[in-house]
Predict the structure.
Amino acid sequence: MQWRGRRQSDNIEDRRGMSSGGMGGGGFRLPTGGRGGGIGIGGLVVILLISWALGINPLTLLSGGDVSMDGGTSGQQTTGTRPQGQSSDETTAFVRTVLAETEDTWGKIFSSSGETYEKPTLVLFAGQVRSGCGTATSASGPFYCPQDRKVYLDTDFFRELDRRFGASGDFAQAYVIAHEVGHHIQNLTGVLPEFNRQRQAMDETDANKMSVRVELQADCYAGIWGKSTQQKGILETGDLKEAINAAHQIGDDTLQKKSQGYVVPDSFNHGTSAQRAEWFRKGFDSGRVEDCDTFSADI
């Protein structure tokens, strides 16, 4: 991926080197392991399955509480964030560049419909962080909080993505960011609020099934962003394969097989490896938002 030398976003909060405490709920994260049961990733495992984007509330799941996308904690945040631009390492530059590319992609799409795209802020943290959805740790993976409209990322996750999940490459890492931004798009368009409303009347199995559709749509939106980068000539040979492999490696079935040796389909809340790769590719091939309607599709 030819990202160097391109525009970098200023919508970054660097909280690395800071500490925070407390516990809450309401975010959407990236999976990092998995086992059957519940809407998310119970313990470290369930945290993983729900991690990414969860149209559900992984933080609350961890504490055994009710899953709620609307509520949680008061959303207090750590203070004294590191001045933007202070960290100039290559990983930070990469994250800033990818975020800028998502801003350009979605800004253009919203503008074509006569709307203004509200850009999310991406928070870099190390170890743990307090968000509008509560406190999360690095073990939870990257996540999006609809309450404060921010994406949270511990860049050490990129090493985990490579070493633990076998998903290497800069475009695989970019896919992670684009997926979380996809949840931001869902928040802006009302998908997440509506999911939370409907979820209140659902049992666990039905809520999980709806969560899968939420997650797959975020994958499709990530694919739309990927299409945009291709049209700009940024992609290199093998990049698309990297992203599809990443989507495959974090499928519910693959994570559960690795962690416990068997799968529990009723506990899936992100989609199978095949589904995640399919919907990312669908967005990439089409580049059209209307083709990401996972809620009407036969899944």
Remarks:
- The first strand starts at residue 12 and ends at 14.
- Strands lie at 12-14, 28-29, 121-124, 128-131, 134-137, 143-145, 150-153.
- The radius of gyration is 17 Å.
